[in-house]
């Protein structure tokens, strides 16, 4: 267990009451274990009786600091949510943390997914988090609490019946965050990264076939996001410990673990010493473009709500990960370069290509809304200079 190996504080969430939906599943069970390790009492709210019982048994047999409880529930049913609420209030007297982890994952073209699957996706992936939030929020107003949403990547072809409601969860989180400002309630969204759970593997088979590519090629395109269930689950639990710092943000599980020093972010990479690379030049170019991004990131944080939301979701759509996570990735690369560790950087060409495409996309957006010709010209010039810097890096890495 990552937490044990790192001697992580076993009392970090001592006696906290944590409700996790879909906690009998791939990532959910790992998250439940991590919560129990930290001393929490985890309530696994799961529709699959077998899975739920097994998860509860496994965790309790591990003799972790906390406990696991199983409540069989179909979260699409409001009456069952009422019963869950009563159960938690009677047995535990309150709820500290709600993790909206359960999901159904219908894949395929918009017209290929049946309307009953669209309805089910809405019911599990969006309506249930709304119902649970509505139910537990009032009690949290008195004692404080944490409400966590679990998004995915971004709406992409053949995944829309799933991703659209997952994206809506992020917007639900963002608006909730504004509404609970000034209370002791915290909310944020945490994406686990890509984990090869049974559900995810089945989903990839359908999407890859729809795209006309092999599953191997599909996995290759996701390489940077692939992680394992334990990292994702531990990410949920550690994010709760550090919840204050994530309030209102959209983050990723590996980012939480990196920020907590539980993983280094250095994956095994092929030896790159044979490459003829001008490291001084790369270092200079990277610093200048990283500074550009950090400035942009700061400015985005200061924007008004609607503008900020638009920019951040557009960034995520173009780059495939939240701006916050990208910032962490850039900072990690900076740290590695500082220590003369270049292997991750040398294998980041795809990231730089996406980054360049993002600025190209920004030029197109600018042409759509900037009416002042002089401003348009100067902003376009600036964006082009960033594109040039990125292109220089890309060319150097492509050698
Ligand atoms: N696996 C990935 O690569 C990945 C990527 C991005 C986001 N996510 C998100 O992470 C979370 C966990 O994913 P996973 O791969 O472990 O999924 P999973 O399918 O293994 O687990 C989901 C669990 O939710 C339960 N569930 C489904 N409908 C329910 C209902 N009506 N009531 C109660 N429980 C219900 C299922 O029985 C299952 O145990 C999901 O929210 C998913 O969207 C996963």
Describe the structure.
Mean pLDDT is 92; it is low at 267-272. The chain has 17 helices and nine strands. 61% of the residues lie in helices and 10% in strands. A seven-stranded parallel beta sheet has the order 3-2-1-4-5-6-9, sandwiched between helices. The protein folds into two domains: 2-259, NAD(P)-binding Rossmann-like Domain (Rossmann fold, 3-Layer(aba) Sandwich); 279-398, no CATH class. It is globular and about 65 Å long. The longest helix has 29 residues, at 115-143. It has 399 residues and is an alpha/beta fold. Helix 2 (26-37) links the parallel strand 1 and strand 2. Bound molecules: nicotinamide-adenine-dinucleotide. Nicotinamide-adenine-dinucleotide is lined by residues 21-22, 24-28, 46-48, 51, 73-76, 101-104, 124, 150, 152, 191-192, 194-195, 197, 199-200. Nicotinamide-adenine-dinucleotide binds at residues 21-22, 24-28, 46-48, 51, 73-76, 101-104, 124, 150, 152, 191-192, 194-195, 197, 199-200.
